[in-house]
Specification:
Blueprint lengths: L2 H20 L3 H19 L5 H32 L11 H14 L8 H6 L3 H8 L4 H10 L5 H17 L7 H18 L5 H25 L4 H4 L7 H15 L7 H13 L3 H26 L23 H12 L4 H4 L4
């Protein structure tokens, strides 16, 4: 892709996100979401592969219907309240409809049907943008409408997301689909407390962005797209392969790694809010996610399948992207943020 075109699309992504984050009017927020949608589609089809084009069409159709629902619910709110303020002052059915449209944009269950197929059809760098940057504007809007949203709706979506996010990834061999179901499960934990404790939901989202960015970047450097590719990762970067093993354990939420922190504080909040059955169910569903994470860890832990040593090992190609200092910082935070929990907990 032409560098100027790439720069223009990157600027459009930044502009769309900034427009949504800084707006106090629903029309401006909707405009920012549309700029983001239109800016990422050329990035999705830059490989000129039929699967990428299919993913872009699916993404466009879903986002179009979601945007129409969002605009319709905003119009209903304006009709009843007489204002286009981004924070409604009363409980309305339209607010629940607005929450559903935002959940579909984020890929939260049961509106997740598009996310695994779309992520599977695009490259890892574009998947990184779709899984992190593209989720920031809808999440911010969800935080603003959550105080007036039906709590039962949010808790139902949270439980379904953790169940589907764990169950859907069990038989997957495609890394991008695994990351899609991981995203669904992690956002389910965020939605569970977005109304009860927005600061905990924000903390969970930051940890999600941190670990997901690190994992996508690592998979891109190691050129891991399927489970069999993991067997050859050691020949590209043995040290990074070892760290990828630990990051998968962090993504699974095992203590004392960083990924354990949000699950711990969110479970504590749900129990203190007299939602112990929900907290128990969500913690049990993490065992489903843990299963396929441990399966990847097992493949990473062994060196290679029983083949001649040099038959499948690729040469270390200097054209491949290399680990950077930024990635080193992200890996450190993704693994070893747990000891800072006593300092972080004072904000909760």
């Amino acid at each position: 892709m032409n560098p100027l075109t790439l720069l223009f699309l990157a600027f459009s992504l930044f502009l769309g996100t900034l427009t949504t984050l800084s707006s106090e009017h629903w029309m401006l927020a909707w405009l920012g979401l549309e700029i983001n949608t239109l800016a990422i589609i050329p990035l999705m089809i830059k490989t000129h592969h039929p699967r990428a084009i299919e993913a872009a069409i699916k993404y466009f159709l879903v986002q179009t219907s979601t945007s129409a629902t969002l605009l319709f619910s905003c119009t209903m709110i304006a009709w009843v309240t007489g204002q286009w303020s981004i924070i409604p002052h009363t409980d309305l059915t339209a607010v629940d409809l607005l929450t559903i449209s935002l959940a579909m944009k984020l890929g939260i269950a049961p509106f997740h049907f598009w996310l695994p197929d779309v992520l599977q059809g695009i490259t890892l760098p574009t998947g990184l943008i779709l899984s992190t940057w593209q989720k920031i504007p809808p999440v911010v809007l969800l935080f603003q409408v959550a105080p007036n949203t039906n709590l039962n709706l949010l808790l139902t979506m949270a439980l379904l997301s953790t169940i589907i996010g764990g169950w859907g990834g069990i038989n997957q061999t495609q890394i991008r689909k695994l990351m899609a179901y991981s995203s669904i499960a992690h956002l389910g934990w965020m939605v569970a407390v977005v109304k009860l404790a927005p600061e905990l939901a924000f903390f969970n989202f930051i940890i999600y962005l941190l670990i997901t960015t690190t994992m996508f970047w690592t998979f891109h450097i190691l050129d891991i797209k399927t489970t069999p590719n993991i067997l050859l990762a050691w020949s590209k970067s043995p040290g990074l392969t070892t760290l990828a093993l630990l990051m998968l354990l962090s993504l699974a939420g095992l203590p004392p790694l960083t990924g354990f922190l949000p699950k711990l504080v969110i479970a504590q909040k749900l129990i203190s809010s007299h939602l112990t059955p929900l907290a128990t169910a969500m913690l049990l569903t993490t065992l489903l996610s843990l299963f396929f994470y441990l399966r990847l860890v097992y493949v990473l832990a062994i060196t290679m399948a029983p083949h001649p040593l040099f038959s499948l090992a690729p040469w270390k190609n200097s054209c491949r992207p290399r680990p950077t200092k930024t990635l080193a910082i992200l890996i450190t935070l993704s693994l070893f943020l747990a000891p800072a929990y006593p300092m972080i907990s004072v904000f909760f």
